[in-house]
Inverse folding.
C-alpha cells in the first residue's frame, strides 16, 4: 500500500493546469471571439443521436433533445422508440436550480441529472464572462481559459479552422474532454465527442440530427 | 300514391347502398383468424414524436419484418441505427457504430423491452394472451377508427406508458399504426407504409448481422 500512497502523493503534488504562454495582446480579443465559436449562439434547440460507450464495455443509443434560452438548459433523453427517459431543466432564473420532470429507471439515479446537465452544459454552453487567460500550450495550440471561483476551469483549444477541443478541469484534473468534429454551422458541430476518464468513465458521441 | 312512390324511391336508394361490410376486427376471434391468414409482413415505418420544446416533430424511420409464428426484425435506420431481431425465442439488440453492429447491452428501459416483446403478439392478433397489458377492443366512433387499446396491468409500467393503441389496416389481419402514450402528453406515433405480405423472408433477416 505504501508505494501506491507515495505515488498518489507524487501525482497530486505534480498536478497542475497546463501552463499557458501568453500571446500578443493585440491578438487576444480576436482569439477570445474565435474561442466563443465553440458554442452556438443562444437561444437554440437541437437534436442529437447519441452513441454511448459506458463502463464495462456497455454500448447504447439514445436521442438527446436540448433547448437553451433565457430560462436555462432543458434536456430530454428519448429511447430510439421515442419514449422519454429523462426530462430536466437547469434553471438560471428566477432561481438557479435543477428541476427533474421525468426520470425512469435507470435514469432516476440520484446523481444522474446533475451529471447529465454538466455534460450538456460543458459541451454546449459557454462559460460566463471573458476568458481569464489566453495563451498557448507548450505544444503550440492556442487556448482560451475560463476559471470561475469555486467552479471548473474550462480550456477551449483552437485548431486552424476554429475551436477543436474543450477540456474541463476540477481540482487540477481533467474532468471532461470534448472533441468538436467536422465543419460547424452557427456553432453546431456535426459530431461532438465527450469523454470522461477514470474508473466510471464513459464516452458520448453526439451526432447532430437537427437544430432550430 | 305520392307517399308510396317516395317510400319506394327511398327503399331503392337504401337497398342500392352496399350493406356495411362486416369488419375483420369485430371481436378477438375474428382478429386472430384474420391475422393467422398472414404468413409474413415486410414493411417500412415512420415514427413521429412531438415534443413541446421542438417546433418540428422528431421523425425516425425504419423497417419491420415479421414471419409467423414469432420471428421479428425491428430496425431503425435513422436518426439512430438500432436493431432488434428475434428468431426462435432468441432476442438480440444491436446498435450500429460506424460500419459495425455492436450489442446494445446498455440496460435499455425495461418498459421498452416489454413493448418490443409484445409486438409479436400484436402481429399475431393475439392481444388477450398478454400478461403485461389488458386489451380493450374499441369500435369505430365519430372521428376515430376502430382500434385495440392496451392498458398496462402493472401500475409501475403505467407510470411510463399510460396506454398503447393499435389501429387496424384495411387488409384483414394487418396493423396500420401504433400509438404509444406516455403519462402526461407524450405520444409516439408509428405508421406502417409500403407493406408487402406473404413474401418469403430469408432466415438471416431475423438473425444478428455477422
Amino acid at each position: 500500500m505504501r508505494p501506491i500512497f507515495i505515488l498518489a502523493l507524487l501525482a497530486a503534488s505534480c498536478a497542475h493546469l497546463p501552463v499557458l504562454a501568453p500571446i500578443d495582446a493585440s491578438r487576444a480579443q480576436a482569439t477570445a471571439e474565435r474561442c466563443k465559436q465553440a458554442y452556438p449562439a443562444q437561444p437554440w434547440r437541437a437534436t442529437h443521436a447519441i452513441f454511448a460507450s459506458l463502463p464495462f464495455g456497455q454500448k447504447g443509443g439514445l436521442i438527446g433533445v436540448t433547448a437553451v434560452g433565457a430560462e436555462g438548459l432543458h434536456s430530454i433523453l428519448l429511447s430510439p422508440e421515442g419514449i422519454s427517459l429523462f426530462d430536466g431543466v437547469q434553471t438560471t432564473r428566477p432561481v438557479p436550480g435543477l428541476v427533474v420532470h421525468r426520470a425512469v429507471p435507470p435514469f432516476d439515479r440520484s446523481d444522474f441529472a446533475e451529471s447529465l446537465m454538466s455534460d450538456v452544459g460543458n459541451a454546449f454552453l459557454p462559460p460566463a464572462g471573458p476568458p481569464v487567460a489566453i495563451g498557448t500550450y507548450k505544444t503550440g495550440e492556442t487556448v482560451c481559459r475560463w476559471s470561475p471561483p469555486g467552479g471548473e476551469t474550462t480550456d477551449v483549444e483552437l485548431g486552424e479552422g476554429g475551436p477543436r477541443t474543450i477540456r474541463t478541469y476540477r481540482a487540477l484534473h481533467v474532468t471532461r474532454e470534448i472533441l468538436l468534429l467536422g465543419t460547424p454551422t452557427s456553432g453546431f458541430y456535426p459530431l461532438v465527442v465527450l469523454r470522461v476518464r477514470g474508473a466510471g468513465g464513459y464516452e458520448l458521441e453526439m451526432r447532430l440530427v437537427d437544430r432550430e | 300514391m305520392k307517399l308510396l312512390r317516395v317510400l319506394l324511391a327511398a327503399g331503392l336508394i337504401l337497398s342500392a347502398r352496399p350493406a356495411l361490410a362486416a369488419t375483420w376486427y369485430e371481436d378477438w376471434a375474428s382478429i386472430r383468424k384474420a391475422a393467422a391468414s398472414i404468413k409474413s409482413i415486410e414493411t417500412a415505418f415512420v415514427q413521429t414524436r412531438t415534443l413541446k420544446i421542438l417546433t418540428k416533430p422528431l421523425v425516425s424511420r425504419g423497417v419491420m419484418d415479421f414471419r409467423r409464428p414469432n420471428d421479428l426484425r425491428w430496425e431503425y435506420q435513422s436518426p439512430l441505427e438500432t436493431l432488434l431481431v428475434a428468431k426462435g425465442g432468441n432476442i438480440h439488440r444491436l446498435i450500429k457504430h460506424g460500419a459495425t453492429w455492436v450489442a446494445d447491452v446498455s440496460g435499455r428501459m425495461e418498459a421498452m423491452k416489454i413493448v418490443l416483446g409484445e409486438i409479436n403478439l400484436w402481429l399475431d392478433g393475439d392481444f388477450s394472451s398478454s400478461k403485461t397489458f389488458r386489451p380493450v377492443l374499441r369500435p369505430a366512433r365519430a372521428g376515430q377508427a376502430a382500434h385495440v387499446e392496451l392498458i398496462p396491468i402493472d401500475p409501475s409500467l403505467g407510470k411510463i406508458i399510460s396506454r398503447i393503441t393499435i389501429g387496424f389496416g384495411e387488409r384483414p389481419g394487418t396493423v396500420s399504426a401504433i400509438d404509444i402514450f406516455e403519462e402526461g402528453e407524450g405520444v409516439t406515433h408509428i405508421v406502417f407504409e409500403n407493406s408487402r405480405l406473404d413474401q418469403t423472408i430469408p432466415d438471416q433477416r431475423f438473425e444478428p448481422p455477422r
Summary: Chain B touches chain A through 36 residues (CB under 8 Å). The mean pLDDT of chain B is 84. Residues 138 and 144 of chain B are 9 Å apart (CA to CA).
